[in-house]
Amino acid sequence: MTTPLDASKTRPLDGGASFSLGNRIFRVWWSVCWLLLARFTPPPFHRWRSLVLRAFGARLGSRCRIHGSVKIWHPRNLVIGDRVLVGPGARLYNQGRIEIGEGTVISQRAHLCASTHALEDPNFQLLLRPINIGKNCWVAAEAFVGPGASMSDGAVLGARGCLFGRAEQNSVYGGNPAKYIKSRG
Q1: Which of 33, 56, 133, 162 is 20 to 30 A away from residue 75, measured at CA?
Q2: Could you tell me the residue ranges of all domains in the chain?
Q3: Please, which contacts does 116-123 make with residues 24 or more away whose CB atoms are closer than 8 Å?
């Protein structure tokens, strides 16, 4: 797992780094390899893209479908169960860990962000806040799952919804901020 540097020493607001040199080199290497080996592969090449992700430390279950246009910040911070679909243009900004349970769908252009900053800190310290999405969930098109959010099994976040807390089991949420709409039934 990645660990941010102390902002009082590196001063990221003045152009300093938030992560170690080793972390930054790994991410450059990862980005180049994803671009060359996976980004422009045809849609049915899910197994190949899963192999590339595993080679860089992601933990993926079987029969995952990760589209080539997906952006993943750090594969070592990614844990995905069996039969998960991550749709075109989805962004997994996983400075902190993101865990996605089996049978879950992350729709096109959804954004999962597992970090934030300490607002009271004058150095704007980066804080990692893991995201946990349960089994058989659905994060609909262009929805946002914020730092530290969680979705219990069977929860749904509607299109363009913004979740910052917890979505309860088999419940549908929508809006910004996301609010309970109804039971999934």
Answers
A1: 162
A2: 14-183
A3: 116/146, 116/147, 116/148, 121/7, 123/7, 123/8, 123/11, 123/12, 123/13
